[in-house]
Give the backbone structure.
Amino acid sequence: MTAPQGAAADASSILIVDDMEENLVALEAVLGSLARVVRARSGEAALKAMLRQDFAVALIDVMMPGMNGFETAANIKGLHQTKDVPIILLTGAAVDPNYAYRGYTVGAADFLIKPFDPWLLRTKVNVFLDLHRKNRQLAEQAEQLTRLLAVDVPTHPPEEQHRLADVERQLAQVQRLLREGESSDEPEAAGLADRIAVLEEAVGRLLEPPEQ
């Protein structure tokens, strides 16, 4: 398990799953500077790791004994707690041409054939890390707004109470979308960021002392 400098401030983690130690070492060498890397040597170990903590992305080797990569991915997507974690499946060059199709049918976000370009792998993983960090930041902003509304909103005239109720409704909707992982790509995450910015302005106006 490795963590980059400043990992304490950035809790994003990458799960790498492979039964071959040399493959885990190679993946960790390529990805270790991007985020905290957690290893698993089997599909069963991967599921246990994912139930213990949150991951920005999981890289899973297809050809593993016992629970193979397809089965591991299907199990991950079948659990409510882990269904939104993006999965990149990895396999060797001499594979069935239908493997990519099988990977996408079980919910994988991408499929890479070894040996892969380290720069390409880092680029793909970075996309998921950025989305994970943005979604976490949006969730924290939404939670902060919820606390402000619960504690600091003074007494306002009835018409402003209606606006408060509307802000609370919209904020609850944003939080639901974040929990359900619907901001799974850049445009959707940007849309939620815009909605939270609008809600922040609305909350700021509501927190202004009423005119005497």
Residues 87 and 183 are 16 Å apart (CA to CA).
